């Protein structure tokens, strides 16, 4: 019980830290992200999602697979079909260019989860779950907390 309380308090403090340390960058480069969700629906030529895999202690995770779904996956059940998969770089960063995939101005909900590939198996690593409504021209930036 005490351990869960400590983990919860730690998660709250790290979340507060992420929000207080977010930065603005007008370069639109894939390396720039804000841990809080930033949405710019329909105002851009491109449709993009930038996500960073990061632990509760602030360590970034490289080599993890961030997978995009159009149906909410349930841990322990068969996964829905994968829309797109991107491997995180050395900085835990992943960039989804969805310009050719999302061409409708009517928003649709998408789900992003993080996995670690072990041999031919995928191990679910997401502690937080990123869900976003995307339409043509939306740019979304956030982070996913992982094990």
Would you kindly provide a brief summary of this structure?
The chain has 147 residues and is mainly beta. Helices cover 13% and strands 37% of the residues. Strands 3, 4, 6, 7 and 8 form a five-stranded antiparallel beta sheet that branches.
Secondary-structure topology with pairs:
Blueprint lengths: L1 H19 L17 E2 L8 E8 L9 E5 L12 E6 L5 E5 L10 E11 L2 E4 L5 E5 L4 E8 L1
Parallel strand pairs: 2-9
Antiparallel strand pairs: 1-9, 2-5, 3-4, 3-6, 6-7, 6-8
Could you explain how this protein is built, in words?
Helices cover 13% and strands 37% of the residues. The protein contains one helix and nine strands. Strands 3, 4, 6, 7 and 8 form a five-stranded antiparallel beta sheet that branches. It has a four-stranded mixed beta sheet with strand order 1-9-2-5, with no helix packed on it. A hairpin with a 2-residue loop joins strand 6 and strand 7. About 10% of the residues have low confidence.
Number of helices: 1
Helix content: 10-25%
How many DSSP-defined strands? Answer: 9
Specify Rg, calculated over alpha carbons: 15 Å
Overall average residue pLDDT = 82
* Residue share in β-strands: 35-45%
Low-confidence spans: 22-35
Structural class of the helix and strand makeup? Answer: mainly beta
State the separation between the terminal residues, measured CA to CA.
19 Å
Compressed to H and E, one letter per element, the order equals HEEEEEEEEE
What's the main sheet like?
5 strands, antiparallel
Coarse morphology: globular
